[in-house]
Amino acid sequence: MFVTTTAATSARDAMTRSVHTTNQDNVSATLNVAVPVARVFAVLADPTTHSAIDGTGWVQEPADRAPLTEVGQVFRMDMYHAGHPDGDYRVANKGAALDAPRAIGWLTGTEKDDGRLEFGGWIWRYDLAPIGPSETEVTLTYDWSAVPQSIREYLQFPPFGPEHLINSLRHLAELATATPRV
């Protein structure tokens, strides 16, 4: 179980953060960043930024580079995890939430040799709330409540430590700060 923590970063970063759980099947982190909501959303909707946002180092390169524009859109990412049977592998992500510039999320799964997509039941979701014209509250949620027991028997959830979400949000804030105005 994740423990709630709150800390302020340096004044230069102008960020506050917290990590918390809402129940046994999801974990979320929140970070306030001094960046307009549209700019944060644009970074999240661009699959080419996802490897730089990732707090684990598992996300490598996008196989599909088109910006996310609709629910149901599929984008693939090349991944690496030392604990994965193949080390290098590819995931297929399917847009599950898209309400620009307020929310974006996707299910993660695999694409079979015949092109059929299978999703394991976990979702990544970012909820964005403007705090004035140049600051955004960003909440990242990893939810595995729909993962069937057959998958839970061989995969641990969440598959990362509590620092992963806040690291991802800090990376997102750095990218959004460096991204030209949208």
Summary tags:
182 residues; alpha+beta; nine-stranded antiparallel β-sheet; 9 strands; 18% helix; globular; disordered N terminus
Residues in helix, %: 10-25%
Which sequence of strands runs across the widest sheet? 1-2-3-9-8-7-6-5-4
**Can you count the helices?**
4
Helix/strand class: alpha+beta
Q: Give the radius of gyration.
A: 16 Å
- Proportion of residues in extended strands: 35-45%
Shape: globular
Average pLDDT: 83
Taking the sheet with the most strands, its summary is: 9 strands, antiparallel
N- to C-terminal distance: 38 Å
Low-confidence segments, given as residue ranges, are 1-14
Helix/strand order, N-terminal first: EEEHHEEEEEEHH
Count all strands and give the number: 9
SSE topology sketch:
Blueprint: E1 5-8, E2 16-23, E3 26-33, H1 37-44, H2 50-53, E4 59-62, E5 74-80, E6 88-99, E7 103-111, E8 117-130, E9 136-143, H3 149-152, H4 163-178
Antiparallel strand pairs: 1-2, 2-3, 3-9, 4-5, 5-6, 6-7, 7-8, 8-9
Task: Give your account of this protein's structure.
α1 packs across α4 (163-178). β8 and β9 form a beta hairpin. Helix content is 18%, strand content 41%. It has 182 residues and is of the alpha+beta class. It has helices spanning 37-44, 50-53, 149-152, 163-178; strands at residues 5-8, 16-23, 26-33, 59-62, 74-80, 88-99, 103-111, 117-130, 136-143. The chain contains 4 helices and 9 strands; from the N terminus they run βββααββββββαα. Strands 1-2-3-9-8-7-6-5-4 form a 9-stranded antiparallel β-sheet.
